[in-house]
Amino acid sequence: MSNSSSLTQFLLLALADRRELQLLHFWLFLAISLAALLANGLILSAVACDHHLHTPMGFFLLNLSLTDLGCICTTVPKAMHNSLWDTTTISYMGCAAQLFFFAAFMSAEFSLLTIMCYDRYVAICKPLHYGTLLGSRACAHMAAAAWATGFLIALLHTANTFSLPLCQGNALGQFFCEIPHILKLSCSHSGYLREIGLLLFTVSLGFGCFIFIVFSYVQIFRAVLRIPSQQGRHKAFSTCLPHLAVVSLFLSTGTFTYLKPPSISSPSLDLGVSVLYSVVPPALNPLIYSLRNQELRDALRKMMT
Questions:
Q1: What is the model's pLDDT at position 114?
Q2: Angle at 65 between CA 64 and CA 66, to 5 degrees
Q3: How far, in Å, CA of 64 to CA of 112, rounded?
Q4: What is the pLDDT of residue 152?
Q5: Each residue of 47-56: pLDDT tens digit?
Q6: pLDDT > 70: percent of the chain
Q7: Which of 47, 105, 164, 254 could hold 62 in an S-S bridge, CB 3.0 to 4.6 Å?
């Protein structure tokens, strides 16, 4: 048996046993990560360079792209390295850093999605107060609060998780470092309960954001249905659908990962679902927004031509 003071590395879950499949996973992850880097990089450049996108939604979309880049750059490079070199190891400090940054970027992303919902609510339900409620200073403060909340939550979870004595070996059942899989290695009952309490607190905050998003969209849809012209309703729905699609993708993949019944759990299914919620959304989010946002499409077209 080992304890946390003597651990120097963890063993991550191998993406495949056969060498051919490992190389296939490497090239697949490389393609997804390059697509995410290119798409989010284009959005960052478009929002920064085109004055038509210097709006609250454009500012929050820029921050969302930063969190997407952070998420995929935290987990994918190590998985690609392990697949290419046929290894599963990650250092103790590398695991702690990976857990911290992944938790920070995911928490900040959900906070930003909640703020973007508020932006849509004010734009459609309180258009006369839009400039007052979402001025440049207010937007900067909300984005800073989202980032600060994400990094504070990540710091609390990382500090508590890596302070637990670990005596159940060093093999993690995941291809990147994640809190539930490290908790399974713990032999401290009090520390385990403390981390569970932190997780429940974080889930409560997330549930509060979810309730706010649902309440806001109820008000938004009621306001849109009162718009007399069909063109006006279509334009209002077009500004909301990308955000709603991104929120749905984020929540559905994350919820299924952590709340799926144990009876359907298997190593291959768990691995596929973890890839679905940690790797796929950062690559899809830019596509979802660019498909429905005419100003963003025009800005990207001007950049490329």
A1: 92
A2: 90
A3: 7
A4: 95
A5: 888 777 788 8
A6: 92
A7: 47
Contacts of 108 (CB under 8 A, 6+ apart): 63, 67, 146, 147, 149, 150, 151
Q: Which residue has the tokens 């290894």?
A: 87
**Terminal Cα-to-Cα distance of the chain (whole angstroms):** 61
With contact defined as beta carbons under 8 Å apart, do 75 and 98 qualify? yes
Extract the tokens encoding 102. Answer: 């992944």
Task: Say if CB 46 and CB 94 are below 8 A apart.
Answer: no
Q: Are 47 and 61 in contact (CB under 8 A)?
A: yes
Tens-place pLDDT, residues 75-110: 899 988 888 888 888 898 999 999 999 999 999 999
Orientation angle between helical segments 19-49 and 294-304, nearest 10 degrees: 100
Is residue 12 within 8 A of residue 176, CB to CB? The reply is yes
CA distance 221 to 223: 5
